[in-house]
Write a structure and sequence with these properties.
The strands form 2 sheets. Strands 3-2-1-4-5-6-7 form a 7-stranded parallel beta sheet, sandwiched between helices. It has a 5-stranded parallel beta sheet with strand order 10-9-8-11-12. The protein has 16 helices and 12 strands. The chain is globular and about 70 Å long. The protein has 437 residues and is an alpha/beta fold. It has 2 domains: 7-241 and 418-436, Glycogen Phosphorylase B (Rossmann fold), CATH 3.40.50.2000; 254-416, 3-Layer(aba) Sandwich (Rossmann fold), CATH 3.40.50.2000. One of its GO terms (molecular function) is hexosyltransferase activity.
Length: 437
């Protein structure tokens, strides 16, 4: 009789940028014969089912949360951060309880989780199956090569760089502890095999292996941007980013296709799902910049609420206002990419060898901007809060320097040789196949 299909549970909580690479991995796992369940927030069912996986959402809509007033204030003020954290804790606890229920009902052979879903390590211990931590940014494996990207710190030297990860780990443990306790109370989980320190967030970030060895830690980003540090432990594997393959059946809107065909390749400008402190001013800055430079551009409108009537006549015909289009289709048709510095957009632009300018807001975005510049694939990043038409115009002209095209092409060549989603899927199925043999 043929062996049963291996079931893999993938959990990634967050916005589209946190979910899409995991769906790309799910696609390759399903193509290789696995039964894949993806659990994330609400709003991603269509994306998940389109790749042949099953969706098990938790009752959280991260896009709605991100666009709320409290969350937007949290990006820019300490008081806002405290208020948003208190408001979201009950929602996170409910999501943690749902993750427990989903895991124990599905009973997978393997669990993959991001840092927002670490309570699934408790499920893995309960079922005695592997649970592997994953990261789209270098935040989980301590190194002396650079400080924890989330803090926006300069290079502090090997010792203090490593210490920044210890501080970050402590903060993450404090955040996980109430969620683990909620699961404990929900599932009456506390027993002799699960120490109190672990239930309070201890080593949940490290995952679980039935044999007691260190779990494989999947670092899903490119060595083109983050060369593998020499002090990473053996169980830390840089797999490359899990990119979505272009849809061969995608048909662009006629007006977009016409714009791209009737002139030189434009610059793409878009800032993803990140709210701006002052979207109106950001919009004015971008338009004023393009008036100065005379360049053709595709502007993603969601971040600024821009409409055609807002465009001055001086840029008429040179700017296309875009609602949405797959980056994997659009970026190859652009000359350069200007974006907020999310891990996904950063990797997608370099995948096609496109010079990039990062205009970050918070979190890991300044880190990716620095890494793009260090890789020689774009100018130094400019924070959105300090953008002016003159600064942005200067940077857009710098993007035309051939040296950045060379750097971006070099990064693209490195990315093309990395395991990516396909290679990761093959390794995972080999691992659980040999374990079950």
């Amino acid at each position: 009789m043929p062996s049963p299909r291996k079931k893999i549970l993938i959990a990634s909580l967050g916005t589209r940028g946190d979910v899409q690479p995991y769906v790309a991995l799910a696609h390759d796992l399903t193509r290789l014969g696995a039964d894949v369940v993806v659990t994330t927030g609400e709003g991603f069912d269509d994306m998940i089912t389109a790749v042949g996986a099953r969706s098990r959402p938790v009752p959280l809509n991260y896009q709605t949360l991100l666009q709320g007033e409290d969350t937007q204030a949290a990006l820019f003020t300490l008081k806002g951060k405290i208020r948003a954290a208190r408001k979201s804790m009950d929602l996170q606890k409910e999501a943690a309880r749902c993750l427990w229920d989903i895991g124990t009902i599905e009973r997978p052979d393997l669990i993959l989780f991001n840092l927002k879903a670490t309570v699934l390590t408790l499920v893995a211990r309960h079922l005695n199956v592997p649970a592997l931590p994953t990261a789209l940014q270098p935040v989980s494996a301590p190194t002396g090569s650079f400080p924890l990207p989330l803090f926006g710190l300069p290079d502090l030297g090997p010792f203090l760089n490593r210490q920044s990860y210890a501080v970050g780990r402590l903060l993450m443990r404090l955040g996980i502890a109430p969620l683990a306790k909620a699961v404990q109370e929900h599932a009456a989980l506390k027993d002799a095999s699960t120490p109190d320190s672990d239930l309070m967030g201890g080593n949940l970030m490290d995952g679980h292996m039935p044999g007691g060895e260190a779990a494989l830690s999947l670092q899903a980003f490119s060595c083109a941007l983050v060369p593998t540090p020499p002090d990473w432990p053996a169980n830390t594997w840089a797999s490359g980013y899990w990119l979505t393959e272009p849809d061969p059946d995608y048909v662009p809107p006629e007006d977009l296709a016409s714009f791209l065909e009737t002139g030189p390749a434009p610059i793409y400008l878009g800032f993803g799902s990140m709210p701006s402190k002052n979207p109106g001013k950001l919009t004015e800055t971008v338009v004023a910049t393009l008036e100065q430079t005379g360049q053709r551009a595709v502007l993603a409108t969601g971040w600024g609420g821009l409409s055609a009537k807002d465009l001055p006549r001086s840029v008429s015909g040179r700017i296309f206002l875009l609602d949405k289009a797959p980056h994997s289709w659009l970026f190859p048709r652009c000359a350069a990419v200007v974006h907020h510095g999310g891990a996904g957009t950063t990797h997608e632009a370099l995948r096609w060898g496109k010079p990039s300018l990062v205009c970050p807001v918070f979190g890991d975005q300044p880190f990716w901007g620095k890494q793009v510049h260090r890789a020689g694939a774009g100018p130094a990043p400019i924070r959105q809060t300090s953008l002016t038409p003159s600064k942005l115009a200067r940077a857009l002209k710098q993007l035309e320097d051939p040296v950045y095209r060379v750097g971006a092409k070099r990064a693209a060549d490195i990315m093309a040789g990395e395991p990516g989603a396909r290679g990761t899927a093959e390794r995972l199925l080999t691992m659980i196949g040999s374990e079950k043999a």
